[in-house]
Prior knowledge:
Shape: globular
Strand order of the largest sheet: 3-4-2-1-5-6-7-11-8
CATH architecture: 3-Layer(aba) Sandwich
Number of strands: 11
Number of helices: 7
Low-confidence stretches: none
Distance between the termini: 59 Å
Amino acid sequence: MHILCTNDDGVQAPGLLALVQEMRKLGKVSVLAPDHNWSASGHVKTLSRPLRVKEMLLSDNTPALTSDGAPSDCVALALLGIIPEPIDLVVSGINPYANAGHDLTYSGTVTAAMEAVIGGIQALAVSVDGPEDGEPRDYAASSQAAGQIAALVIKNGLPPGILLNVNVPYLPAGKLRGFLVTRQGLRIYRDSLVRREDPRGRPYYWIGGDNPTGVPEEGTDFGALAEGFVSITPVHLDLTAHHLEETFRAWDWPASLTG
Length: 259
C-alpha cells in the first residue's frame, strides 16, 4: 500500500506531520505538499507557468517533496510521475479547521482529494474542527480517526469517482462519540467588503467579516460535529442535479437560435 500525503497549509504544517506519522502504520508513505499556505484556494490547475519541485525533510526527518504549485497541482504532479511508484491512496490534511458544507468548493484540502479522484485514485480529505484562536493544535485524535478511516478504505475500497470528506471534532480521543456518515450541511457566511486606500489614495479591498458558522441539522456534517461525532461525507464530482433533469427537459426550449 502506497499512500500519498498532501495538504493545503504547507509542507511544514503540523497537521501534515501528524497525518504522515499515522499513515505510516498502514503502508509506504510519500509526501508532496505545497511550499506555502494555499487555504481556500479551490481547485487549481497551474498551466501558465512552470512548477518547481524540491526535496526537503519534515521536522521528524521524513523525506518529502514540496512544490510552489497548489494542493491539486501537487497531487497531479505526483500522479503524472514525479513520484514514480504507483499511488494507491491519497490522504489530504489534516486541516486545522473544519471543511464542511459549502467549504468543499473553496477548500484546497478537499480539492487535492478531488484531483486524486479525477486521476482514478482513492482519496480522503481530513480536517479537525479547531477553534479560531490561532493556538497550536493537538492532532492526536484527528490523526487516529484518519488512520481508522483510511484502514477501512483500504479494506473495502471506494466506488469510482467518490472521495470521503472527514471532519473531526476538536476533542480528546476518549470523548469522541463515534463515526457518522453524513451529508453536506449549510454553511452560513458573514462576509463583508472592507475598503481601504493605499498611500497614494488608490482604493483596495479585503473580503472581511465574522467567522462563518454552520446549521447543526441532524444527519449533516455540522450536526455530527456539534454532537461530538466524526463526520464522514461521501462526495462525488458529478455536480449534475439529476433529480431536476426531467423538470428542465419539460421547458419549452426553442428549436433553434433566434436572431
